[in-house]
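Page 42, continued from yesterday. The earlier attempt failed because a stray header line got pasted into the input along with the sequence. Redoing it now with the clean sequence only.
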Amino acid sequence: MSDVVLRNLCITLKGNPIIRDLDLQVQEGEFLVLLGPSGCGKSTLLHSIAGLIDTTSGAIEIGGRDMSDADPSERGIGMVFQSYALYPTMTVEKNMSFGLRVSGTPKAEIRRRVDHVASMLQLDALLDRKPSQLSGGQRQRVAIGRALVRDAGVFLFDEPLSNLDAKLRTELRRELKVLHQRLGSTMIYVTHDQVEAMTLASRIVVMKAGEIQQIGTPGDVYDRPANRFVAGFLGSPSMNFVDGEVDAAGRFMSPALSLPMDAGVRGAVTLGVRPECISIGDGPLTGTIALVEPMGNHQVAWIECGGQQLSSIVTGTRAVEPGQQVAFGIDTARVSLFDQKTGNRL
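This time it went through. Structure tokens are written below.
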């Protein structure tokens, strides 16, 4: 396995800057997830590490070696694309073993690796089929398997699960995590799906418009977002935001809420509170249930309060109905405060 270091990386495509002065260190053996909305540059960044996109300036180091100008074949990486990119005339076994055969790996070792990965990805019965005989989900599993059979220093995944159905996506996500724990390989994974990011990552890199907004463990990024963008991007439902101010007595005041705070800040702020930090049934605040969304093992209740709608997660057997007047409380120890102008965490 290898580490990956990006130094002052800039990428410009067709005259448009995509990545700007980006610095990032991926540690040996970690599962790093690049997370962000479509068009934020995360796939472009991944492809530059693979050598598929030229950088404008800066350096890419893999395993301590400068690979900025190296061919993709020289970088010691295994790549899984969003599209399947399979050879249509080859069987599943031939597609998975192609890179090993080209590199001269002994036949017995090829068979061992292919059989192991095929078993893990539920491809055992499909090894003699060609891509045209497979479903979309099966094709993507073959593409993942083709990368995993390689003894690569770094594995790169470009939204590999996006074409799979929900059940298989959950299963493969779990298998990828188990694989990483077993092998300890360095993995860099691109997704816009926050569930994938939170469940897979050792660390998450949240990106916006070609720039890194925050790097941290899933817990850090979720509980202590660096700015309002990160706070709003993570979470389903997303964080509730309420504009107001903290007065001289240290109390947050807005038309919707009045809360005691111990934040050490004063003046105009945006209060951010996760839905699970709002508890219905007990507390000093009151509101009206505007909408209830059943989610199986929990409900999302939307509370109308002072012209503001707040989402709350309701668990257990508590029954809430639209139009119901409720008391609720907010766990002020877990709220976030953001600067109204910059959006940065205070």
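Notes: The mean pLDDT is 92.
Reminder to self: strip header lines before submitting.
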